Amino acid sequence: MRAALKSAAPTLAVERRLWAEGREVVVGMDEVGKGAWAGPLTLVAAVLPRDRRVYRVRDSKLLTEAEREGLYDRIADWCVAWSAGHASNDECDGLGMSAAQRLAAGRALDGLGLDADAVLVDGRWDFVGNGKTRALVKGDVTCLSIAAASILAKVTRDRLMRAAAGDYPDFNFDSNKGYPCPRHRAALSAHGPTPLHRRSWAFMDNLGWSHLRTRPGSPLPF
Q: Is-above-0.70 flag for pTM?
């Protein structure tokens, strides 16, 4: 077993405390895509069962792509319910990242088909804002429902970006998933942005492609 998988596994300790308080539907949420240059911001809301476990669930960042893909179907089948919510690159540009994160979170919660009694999020910021949220520092490492959501979110978004790679072969979206890297920067400088690129963020200011025309292509299907 790799060292990352030997680390302390996330638990249901927080969920159990909430269940004991009468909170029947406890939702774990996590996001992916916040630092990307292209593609959506994706959030997943996941509700776990009390009586069954899937082993080797960890924060998605500790797992390889193959490990995440191997766990995806098992976690999806394990969940009582789960749902992905997206904010498009245009929504990230137009609303700003904080509002886009709230939008995607609302879409994920709406897609569950359940009314949440408590929502657990990673970090310090309550981006849900429904009065039922508990923010947990390092929640993706310690809280099982957040860790499960992190894997579902990462694989969901990665698959969207791999599906888009054929439309934009110069950008290697199948490998970089829209995140910064030297080849991505070089492709932007040479070819200009695709319809999947975010344009308003400070880290894009000095890329030197503002004079270039947008490449044709299709937006992502959500």
A: yes
